[in-house]
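Reading a protein record of the kind used here takes only a little practice. The record below shows the convention in full.

——
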Amino acid sequence: MRASLIQIAVEEGESVAVRRLRTAALVRAQAGADLVVLPELWTTGAFAFEEFAAEAEPLEGPTYELMAKTASEAGVWLHAGSIPERAPDGALYNTSLFFSPSGELAATYRKIHRFGFDKGEAVLMGRGEELVTVRLPETVLGLATCYDLRFPELFRGLVDAGAQTLVLPAGWPERRRAHWTLLAQARAVENQAFVLACGTAGTHAGVPQAGHSIVVDPWGEVLAEAGPGEEVLTVEFDPAKAAETREQFPALKDRVLGLETPRR
């Protein structure tokens, strides 16, 4: 399976409309890949809190329309990152869009763990409530977003739902880049799954971004890692290795907590 993670640079001075068109061109250039992944909130920047309400769009808004068309043109499964979604009741969500190679919407995921503690996304966005998996011909994807990476129970839930490959768009800050790499590898090892984590480059509202998108295999080996700037990170991997790893080293079968009450 061939996956391309597009590490978009989000910089001040480029309008959302222009960035959409530029990103669509980058996606079309990945024709021949099986899966293309974009970052979290790449239209606005994950830390551009003041832009969320102004740039929020309905689920089937301009980003949806362009990315659906682009997925079809490129013939790829497209995780179109996430957008600030304005729901019909006016609430905002950090919502991921996932399209099939025919341009059909295959899944949406509203981010469950919102970053910011008592400010920013945590107070501006509503919380998602559902775990989401998507079945591709080669593998089952589990969807998560950025700050979710710090909460291993979410990924256990995705594994219980059948996920073998974990896909995570993000807008992760440079000052915590060491955590990004460490946690991506930890989620891969503990779940015996591939992790495809796509971040942003540039600076969001004065917050330098980590970049360094990363692909990790079920043994924790880093298969590919981007640098700090805008980049397309492409990697070939065998999704069957997740099932093989779980069979060769069946640690997941020894789980107790969260499944049943342990015997004393």
